[in-house]
Write a structure and sequence with these properties.
Largest sheet: 8 strands, parallel
Oligomer: single chain
Radius of gyration: 29 Å
Pfam families: B12-binding (PF02310), B12-binding_2 (PF02607), Met_synt_B12 (PF02965), Pterin_bind (PF00809)
GO molecular function, one term: methionine synthase activity
Structural class: alpha/beta
Catalytic activity: (6S)-5-methyl-5,6,7,8-tetrahydrofolate + L-homocysteine = (6S)-5,6,7,8-tetrahydrofolate + L-methionine
Strand order of the largest sheet: 9-8-5-4-3-2-1-10
Keywords: Amino-acid biosynthesis, Cobalamin, Cobalt, Metal-binding, Methionine biosynthesis, Methyltransferase, Repeat, S-adenosyl-L-methionine, Transferase, Zinc
Domain B12-binding N-terminal: 308-402
Length: 904
């Protein structure tokens, strides 16, 4: 995978009313759930940005844009990606800008209406802190030729940067992707014109990005999806090579260029690259033949020839080993390795020869997007079993020949660690496996690793790179601490940063300034090999680090600009804008019990008062979507099982996951435990005060909450979780629920068994299933909690409804967007007696151990919803510190990523 390809951004088109009949139908019908489902599917399918267009003659565009943006803002899995506001009406775009959270993109502005209007609109975009898509369109019309595209984009660039000071890094030029193969000869070169214009724009207009709407190119073939998808894939391949940074496409329907049928690929390229005059006719003829063949095969339903499937066993042993590695087949690897060992003079030669040859193929296929992560991990399992068989022979050789022996020279040595206080390591484990597959020596220090151990190991092992991972917010500060210590101790190694809580922006703004030799954020396992390869190359490293530094400089400037352009409300003003409820009329459910209920799946006699449940019962509540995300297979479950690109591998992964789950259940490998409780309470300002009894005789504990301070339109509120609890002065008593659940007991031991057998694939699978069972436990307990409160007894919700949160109430977790302070967990754990009842304990960073654990609160207000607190100001930090009895510095340390200022 090239650097350009790995940084390419997909703009999901299915939330564009002109790009999706399904979205258009849902929007016109006012079916907001369906609209949100389409947006969610685009994100799950890999969209980095959502293109939102609601232009339709019979729809109020302004009101619809605002309504949908507000709904998206309440969906954490959707609003985590930027929104591209797309409309031909400026009034719709401006309404969208007024209620958009975070940095958005306006699509689009152009010189069509003259320079004055162009600059007026650009000035407003600049004021809102958004980026702008600039069309290659001027007073004379749309640019079609290469020269006109470059001329208009250059003129626009000069006006925006020189007259307005518009940051070049916030400009996205769209040089117009026009339809080819229309039968009109002048149109035949449109794709070539786009590719050449893109290259010139990137060369001559520093800092800008280039985008386009890919579906336009194949409009002549509408109704013929196989041809259109092949054309889109081929167009992106050539476009990215020319410098295309992003494109509007259907995120769930992207193919791999090399996997297009070779004949179809050549014909598509003939059309796109204008290589022959009869290209269109030839492509149509071939497409019709393919469709006829596909229909015939579908009607025949022929099974796969099992004899042919095993034909590889007749190949020479070296070829069999390579095949086994690429296909992840470990059935015969030990006997094949032994046969191969007897052919070579030394066992080391087996590793350096056929095994590394096979792994190089695996690395190339994965890098090119032709293999998926589960396949790579299976290949690593085969490799490890082969090496394990050879190791005793190599050890014996060492004893006989002191000067000889050893395994193949590694390309580099990398120390990986999950930082102190954090217990999550699935992502890190996957990165380690991918690096090992590419012949890097990986020293994985595990989880909760203190800074001193990381640095000492790096020195002792003469590491070439250090990689840090973390999932929870406090880990970000620990990463900064490690970077500072590396700088203080004179390290010069590159530092890699990764994990779910990390981001390129945080790495650039907080970590990189603390360590000059180089901090690189790595998005996921598919990127890591390219990054490490560049950092360990004497020729590539200087340019790579220079480019990385330049990107981080732009990110720091962008961060500063966003902060200055989007001032926060004062805390007092934000509190005035809280939602107001008629508490006299609000339904406040009374739980069946106060205090605690404990649940367990453990075999044998349970402690008195503990309620038993089975893992089979728990498995019914599994949400399988995140299971595939853990393996970097993106898409909406179960649709991804039939996806043309990932469907086959996803189906195989799903079957293997369910098989291992059945083994876990049958052998009772994991023990799941839970505790939930209810307490009388009231809100006191932004805090929730819990009482020992319904008479409110004594305060039992207090939970401290944070309030949104971002500026919003007049009809939107600044939320705080305490808003959903009856205020003490309302005269009503309310109730708060809490829970802690785990499915983690037994997970690490089970995974360790697989690792001891050189089976990282099953070890990672065991951990991923533990996480899924923990989330299933949270879902099951919430269902019980709603029943305990009465209103849940009349629920008639299917599993898909539960996953879409169709129920009443919310269950936010400390450390997550609605309540980002992890230090509220100790209070919750004390109330639940969680460590004694479930075996979960908190680390010094308030991470839960075992890792497959979840905790949080139950808010039952009928209008309660999820939200993100966002950035908070110094006034709220001071107020929060006073309420919690902590110093401002302590609060700042825990809430660092949420601060809208730099702590002193």
């Amino acid at each position: 995978m090239s650097t350009a390809a790995s940084s390419f951004l997909v703009i999901g088109e299915r939330t564009n009313i002109t790009g999706s009949p399904k979205f258009s139908k849902a929007l016109k019908a006012g079916d907001w759930d369906a609209c949100l489902a389409i947006a969610r599917q685009q994100v799950e399918s890999g969209a980095n940005i959502l293109d939102l267009n609601v232009d339709e003659a019979l729809i109020d565009g302004e009101a619809t844009m605002v309504k949908f943006l507000n709904l998206i803002a309440a969906e954490p899995e959707i609003c985590r990606v930027p929104i591209m506001l797309d409309s031909s009406k400026w009034s719709v775009l401006e309404k969208g800008l007024q209620c958009l959270q975070g940095k958005g993109i306006v699509n689009s502005i152009s010189l069509k209406d003259g320079e004055a209007e162009f600059l007026r609109r650009a000035q407003l975009i600049l004021r809102y802190g958004a980026a702008a898509v600039v069309m290659a369109f001027d007073e004379k019309g749309q640019a079609a030729s290469r020269d006109d595209k470059v001329r208009i984009c250059t003129r626009s660039y000069q006006l925006l940067t020189e007259k307005l000071g518009f940051p070049a890094t916030d400009l996205i030029f769209d040089p117009n992707i026009l339809t080819v193969a229309t039968g009109i000869e002048e149109h035949n070169n449109y794709a070539v014109d786009f590719f050449e214009a893109t290259a010139l724009i990137k060369q001559t207009l520093p800092g800008v990005k280039v985008s386009g709407g890919v579906s336009n190119v194949s409009f002549s073939f509408r109704g013929n999806n196989p041809v259109r998808e092949a054309m889109h894939t081929a167009f992106l391949y050539h476009g990215i090579r020319a410098g295309l940074d992003m494109a509007i496409v259907n995120a769930g329907m992207l193919g791999v260029y090399d996997e297009i049928d070779p004949a179809l690929r050549e014909l598509a390229d003939d059309v796109l690259l204008n290589r022959r005059p009869d290209a269109t006719e030839r492509l149509i003829t071939h497409a019709e033949a393919l469709k006829a063949a596909a229909d015939a095969a579908k009607a025949g339903g022929q099974p796969v020839d099992q004899v042919a499937a095993q034909a590889w066993r007749e190949l020479p042993v070296e070829a069999r080993m390579s095949h086994a590695l690429v296909k992840g087949i470990d059935t015969f690897i030990v006997e094949d390795t032994e046969e191969c060992r007897q052919k070579f003079a030394r066992p080391l030669e087996v590793i350096e020869g056929p095994l590394m040859d096979g792994m190089r193929v695996v690395g190339d296929l994965f890098g090119a997007g032709k293999m998926f992560l589960p396949q790579v991990v299976k290949s690593a399992r085969v490799m490890k079993k082969a090496v394990a068989h050879l190791t005793p022979f190599m050890e014996e050789e060492k004893r006989r020949h002191i000067a000889a022996g050893g395994i193949a020279q590694a390309q580099g040595r990398i120390v990986l660690a999950t930082v102190k206080g954090d217990v999550h390591d699935i992502g890190k484990s996957i990165v380690g496996v991918v690096l090992a597959c590419n012949n890097y020596e990986v020293i994985d220090l595990g989880v909760m690793v203190p800074c001193e151990k990381i640095l000492a190991t790096a020195r002792e092992q003469k590491a070439d790179i250090i990689g840090l991972s973390g999932l929870i917010t406090p880990s970000l500060d620990e990463m900064v601490h490690v970077a500072k210590e590396m700088n203080r101790e004179g390290f010069t190694l590159p530092l890699l940063i990764g994990g779910a809580t990390t981001s390129p922006a945080h790495s650039a703004v907080k970590v990189a300034p603390a360590y000059a030799p180089g901090v690189v954020h790595v998005l996921d396992a598919s990127r890591v090999v390219n990054v490490v390869s560049a950092l360990l190359s004497e020729t590539q490293k200087p340019a790579f680090l220079a480019d990385n530094f330049a990107k981080q400089e732009r990110q720091r400037a962008d961060f500063a600009a966003r902060r200055s352009r989007k001032p926060l409300l004062s805390l007092a003003r934000a509190r005035e804008r809280r939602p107001i409820f008629d508490w006299a009329q609000t339904d406040i459910p009374v739980p069946e019990f106060l205090g605690l209920r404990v649940f367990s799946s453990a075999a044998g006699e349970l402690p008195p008062g503990t309620h038993r449940f089975s893992l089979e019962e728990l498995a019914e509540f599994i949400d399988w979507g995140p299971f595939f995300s853990a393996w970097e297979i993106h898409g909406r479950f179960p649709d991804l099982l039939t996806d043309e690109v990932v469907g086959a591998e996803a189906t195989k992964l799903f079957a293997e996951g369910k098989a291992l789950l059945q083994r876990i259940i049958a052998e009772q490998r994991y023990t799941a435990k839970a505790v939930l409780g209810f307490w009388p309470c009231n809100a006191i300002g932004d805090d929730v005060e819990l009482y020992t009894d319904t008479a409110r005789t004594e305060v039992l504990a207090t939970f401290h909450q944070l309030r949104q301070q971002m500026e919003k339109p007049a009809d939107r509120f600044n939320h705080c979780l305490a808003d959903y609890i009856a205020p003490k002065d309302s005269g009503r008593l309310d109730y708060l629920g809490g829970f802690a659940v785990t499915a983690g007991h037994g997970v690490e031991a089970f995974a360790a068994e697989f690792r001891a057998a050189h089976d990282d694939y099953s070890a990672i699978m065991a951990q991923a299933l533990g996480d899924r069972l923990a989330e299933a436990m949270a879902e099951m307990m919430h269902k019980k909690a709603r029943a305990f409160c009465g209103f849940g007894k009349t629920e008639n919700l299917e599993m898909k409804d539960l996953l879409r949160e169709k129920y009443r109430g919310v269950r936010p977790a400390p450390g997550y967007p609605a309540c980002p302070d992890h230090t509220e967990k100790p209070t919750l754990f004390a109330l639940l007696n969680a460590t004694a009842t479930t075996g979960i304990h908190l680390t010094e960073s308030c991470a839960m151990h075992p890792a497959s654990s979840v905790s949080g609160w139950y808010f039952n207000h009928p209008e309660a919803k999820y939200f993100g607190v966002g950035k908070i100001g110094h006034d709220q930090v001071e107020d929060y510190a006073r309420r919690k009895g902590q110093s401002v510095a302590e609060v700042e340390r825990w809430l660092g990523p949420y601060l809208d200022y730099d702590p002193r």
